[in-house]
Design a protein that fits this description.
mainly alpha; 4 helices; about 0% strand; Transcriptional regulator; Lambda_DNA-bd_dom_sf
Length: about 70
């Protein structure tokens, strides 16, 4: 997926598992409560409300992997 066209159709749980994050790790990166992640875990990415969607998309898409100082 060069542009990430199919990412919006997948569930948050599936994307989270593909990136290797647990619910607690993802919540820590987003600085929100773990129950918020568990609440949206079975929703598709396109069904999430906007403030949380804009926070979670770059992490699940892998944008922050380019910022690792190797």
């Amino acid at each position: 997926m060069i542009f990430g066209f199919g990412i919006r159709k997948k569930t948050v749980k599936e994307l989270r598992k593909n990136r290797g994050y647990t619910a607690a790790e993802l919540a820590q990166r987003l600085k929100i409560n773990v129950t918020e992640i568990l609440r949206i875990d079975n929703l598709r990415l396109k069904d999430i409300e906007e403030p949380l969607y804009s926070k979670i998309l770059p992490i699940l898409r892998g944008d922050e992997d380019d910022k690792i100082p190797w």
